[in-house]
């Protein structure tokens, strides 16, 4: 009998924020990536409203699972496992996805894998560029997180090197877009304006880049304040605000710091691959500058296509498939949503070990950070 | 007929199996903070206790609230997904109807009230003519604001027990049981009634503030 562990067929469910994502993968091959977004319902609030997101997840879940299976052309009976984002994320939103995944896995008699949202953002690149090199350096940037992570094994060993000490990078884009009256979400619109602006027009500060600052941590709160002050000063003087130049100069300050620190981490750790994921990885200037700096440093850059960078179910399925392939223990039926699941937990294994002999051996070597 | 009924709209996580005539297994646990963790193991336990597996179920019945949203959604999402995976219908029953059906007052004479705890010093409530006949749409209100409308009526549910000023004659049960929900659904189905697809009864808009213009950061 062919061992399905080589190329496990896994369905993944993601509901940590405002996207209801359901993806299907076979090993490292993407079969379906269905996403229903409630972003338009949040736009008038200028940010994601948790209760609005949770209500939308409940409505969208069953149709999105249906759509993903049709798109993948597979039957639910043939799945080797169901994966779901167990955290981190919005508690109420996560709980909708976890409830659906548990019910689906239980009803189909399939193993359940509660996985980490951040590790999923890294693992999704396997669908684009093949198996992850080990180790992989990952820069994760989105509205909710900004971190540098070093992973020797995406199913068991993810080590945080640095993270933002205040705002996430994507949050800074949203806030500056609001100051400029450009609406929500801020990332895409700032990117668009910035293309026509001069990134060197205004010298905005680069946070935490002094010689005594932590090498891999980020700070975007000071930058946000500096940009807002600069704009207010123009407005107070009755002058027009050069939106394109402000957008370009602000964006340059963000991506300069992100890429500088990521490349430095690669050099310090002797890692020759850099993976960039999360919603902000869709930013065109971040991709370009990272490419430039990685080339100069002899580092291979891996950035998935934009649709795989933003939150989606395929990334969860990708990590779930890796859990199956590496015989990681499935989660228990009382799996809970954990809004602050630590990045060092790539998944939430059950308390009862697998009964298979091969598994027991694997498990003994697994818990490097527990 | 084998109905699987579940409800997470009150602090109880409650599951029951009903064969069309009787409840054959059930479980109720009260823990308002752990609906998500408790529900699936409870389903597993109830099926196990009856010596059955989920694929024997012919329809799923779920309490649609009203109830605190986060918990309420656990039951609704679970029921919906069971329906999808098993290819069986999923029926919604108002949680307050389940409480009315289980109440001793049902055997008595005259109308009564069902009230559950809506938190924020409010109750979810409706009035009933008898165990099977609701007179008003479920609503959410401060007890003092409905005191006149429920004056003189006996009441059941945690909402009634919590506010004796408004509900001086309050009775058990405190929370809904899936057994009652299943019994009511079985009765309605046997009578040829059509049961609706589940729709959550939130009764309140989401808490969301449209942010004011951004905060000015320039010092005065
Ligand atoms: Zn994300």
Task: Offer a few descriptive terms.
A: 370 residues, 2 domains, 5-stranded mixed β-sheet, globular, disordered C terminus, B: 220 residues, alpha/beta, Nucleotidyltransferase, domain 5, 6-stranded mixed β-sheet, binds zinc ion
What does this structure look like?
Chain A is an alpha/beta fold. Chain A has helices spanning 39-43, 50-72, 91-108, 117-123, 126-129, 169-179, 186-194, 221-236, 243-269, 284-297, 306-309, 313-325, 357-366; strands spanning 9-14, 19-26, 29-37, 81-87, 112-116, 136-141, 146-153, 157-163, 273-277, 300-302. In chain A, strand 6 and strand 7 (146-153) form a beta hairpin. The longest helix of chain A is centred in the last third of the chain and has 27 residues, at 243-269. Mean pLDDT of chain A is 93; it is low at 355-370. Chain B folds into two domains: 3-94 and 176-190, Nucleotidyltransferase, domain 5 (2-Layer Sandwich); 97-171, 2-Layer Sandwich (Nucleotidyltransferase, domain 5), CATH 3.30.420. In chain B, 30% of the residues lie in helices and 24% in strands. In chain B, the strands form two sheets. In chain B, strands 6, 7, 8, 9, 10 and 11 form a six-stranded mixed beta sheet that branches. Chain B has a five-stranded mixed beta sheet with strand order 3-2-1-4-5, with helices on both faces. In chain B, strand 7 and strand 8 form a beta hairpin. The model of chain B has no long low-confidence stretch (mean pLDDT 93). Zinc ion binds next to helix 4 of chain A.
Structural class of chain A: alpha/beta
Which segments of chain A are poorly predicted (pLDDT under 50) over 5 or more consecutive residues?
Answer: 355-370
Structure ligands: zinc ion
Helix and strand sequence of chain B: EEEHEHEHEEEEHEHEH
Continuous helix count of chain A: 13
The third-level CATH topology of the largest domain in chain B is Nucleotidyltransferase, domain 5
* Rg of chain B, Å, rounded: 19 Å
- So how many helices of chain B? 6
SS elements, strand count of chain A: 10
| Mean pLDDT score of chain B | 93
